[in-house]
Amino acid sequence: MPKLLEISKPFIVLVEGKDDAEMLYSLTHSMGMPKDEFQVLQYGGKQKFPSFLKQITNFPEFEMVTKLAIFRDADENSQSAFQSIEHHLKSSDLIPQDSVPTHSGEVKKSDSGFAVGIYITPDCSNKGALETLLLDSLTSEMKSEIETYVTQAEKSLSTDRARDKYKNSTKSRTYAYSALFENASFHDTFNKRLWDWSHPTFNQLKTFLQAF
Amino acid sequence: MPLVQSVHFSNYRNFTDFTMDGLQRINLIVGDSNVGKTGLLEGLVTLWGNEEQFKALPNTFRMSYGDYTTSLDSFWSWLHPQRNHSLTMILRSTDIDNLMRAVRYEDHVRYDRDSVERSLQKTPYKINILPIGIGNYEFQVDLFNQLANTKNGKESLVSSLQVIEPRLKGLDYLKLPSSNHAMVYADVDLDYKIPTTQFGHGFTRSMEMLSNLILSGSDIMIADEIENGIHYSALGSVWKAIIDYAVKNDVQVFATTHSRECIAAAHEAMSEQENYELNVIRLQNRKGEVVAINHNKEDIETAFDLGLPLR
């Protein structure tokens, strides 16, 4: 039986999936934050977030948690994504209510010392996702080359099935960037440190993490 | 809709102010060792059980000794929190008609039960306590014969078992020339009958549980560590049979389990029903109080998808 999830650190970071987790480990490593200072838990996408939050906050070990960071993609609307997370935090009687942030990117500390922060990717205000943020960190020349590849290559797709499956998306662009590095899938790009974490586009995210 | 909607215990064992609501047709109670799962079932028997079931409690779920009189100290005193007899213990439940049933327990005696039920002009609940550690063939045969002696009992058992063995046409207790003693045989539409001992463990265990349930004509089934003695591969069949019977006959189930496979099997079997009526209730100590945490279908699926312990 696979190992069941346990809370083992007082600082927990909730992310949607594996890519987000790898990105955070890579980014925090670049910031000099030791990996053992926090625990990243994947909640499996926005649909599962309410149930995941309810269950982990009910774990007996949750009593030792003092810092809770929550990441979610904005998708089509950053404000709605924030409000959804905020609603679930406010519905929980195990989260100190004076720690629930009022806007994305804020880290709020309760009188009891419990800190909660919500970060809606890419930048707490615009639509998009983690990939949008990552693409922003590439040089304009690189972005242009990727754009050309993704849009021009469509014209050479040879079957109807391939054309049906074609996606002109931010994800496709990040995967195109990943493909430049042999043996690197998208999440490998984080392990192999192929993103420039010193780029100013990541400053807001770093400030958010440092605020805990 | 299940019969009992909520349960409240005050000053009972380690349940000082305990509420369990949102109850479903099947209620699987989980939690760490010694959190109070068995104590919870004993509370339900104290609340709903008849006099015989109540007095048998010391030996029903626990390794105990003696009878009602000799076990006054070893069992009954411990129903009070920290054996503090000065606190009034109240156990109550609210049912689908919003009627409340309650008992007060003081110094080894239940009070109020009959009067409350008489005033409501409702018959007491009939509960079936599933014996633990069963699997004895003689016991199964005895149950079957008792069932065969009741009106439509055997037919009801066959119909319930068809959920897991669709070929089953009938069951009979026979002494065949090929055997030197009588056995229960199944008719699965072959030229010959097959002894039930030749069926899988899921079938025989389901047969045993269902025989118990049908014989008792109960509204509620109570089982401690329901997975005991059932091979994990048979759990699916057993739950399928129990859930199907419970839904068709309006029976409510309260069972404890330590097994994740058992929860998975119950979830899978319930997912095949038109209405999903499974609640996994985790008992947990929170700041010295036992609390009940409900897990609905979405929670159970999330727990299995993401490796969350339901415990």
Q: Can you describe this structure in just a few lines?
A:
The complex is a heterodimer of chains A (212) and B (311). Chain A is α/β, with parallel strands linked by helices. Helices cover 40% and strands 12% of the residues of chain A.
Can you walk through the features of this model?
Chain A is an alpha/beta fold and 212 residues long. Chain A contains nine helices and five strands. In chain A, a hairpin with a 5-residue loop joins strand 4 and strand 5. In chain A, helix 4 packs across helix 7 and helix 5 packs across helix 7. The radius of gyration of chain A is 18 Å and the shape is elongated. Chain B is globular. Chain B has 311 residues and is an alpha/beta fold. Chain B is 33% helix and 25% strand. Chains A and B meet through helix 2 of A and strand 13 and helix 10 of B.
| Helix-and-strand structural type of chain A | alpha/beta
Outline type of chain A: elongated
What global shape of chain B is seen? globular
Terminal Cα span of chain B: 26 Å
Organism (chain A): Leucothrix pacifica
InterPro entries (chain A): DUF3226
Pfam families (chain A): DUF3226 (PF11536)
Protein name (chain A): DUF4435 domain-containing protein
Summarize the SSE layout with pairings.
The complex is a heterodimer of chains A (212) and B (311).
Chain A: E1 11-15, H1 18-30, E2 39-42, H2 49-57, E3 67-73, H3 78-90, E4 107-109, E5 115-121, H4 130-136, H5 140-154, H6 160-165, H7 170-178, H8 188-191, H9 203-210
Helix pairs in contact in A: 4-7, 5-7
Chain B: E1 4-12, E2 15-20, E3 26-31, H1 37-48, H2 51-55, H3 57-60, E4 89-95, E5 100-106, E6 109-111, H4 113-120, E7 127-129, H5 137-148, H6 153-161, E8 170-174, E9 183-187, E10 194-195, H7 201-216, E11 220-223, H8 235-249, E12 252-256, H9 260-271, E13 278-286, E14 289-295, H10 297-306
Parallel strand pairs in B: 3-12, 3-13, 7-11, 11-12
Antiparallel strand pairs in B: 1-2, 1-4, 4-5, 5-6, 8-9, 9-10, 13-14
Helix pairs in contact in B: 5-7, 6-7, 7-8, 8-9
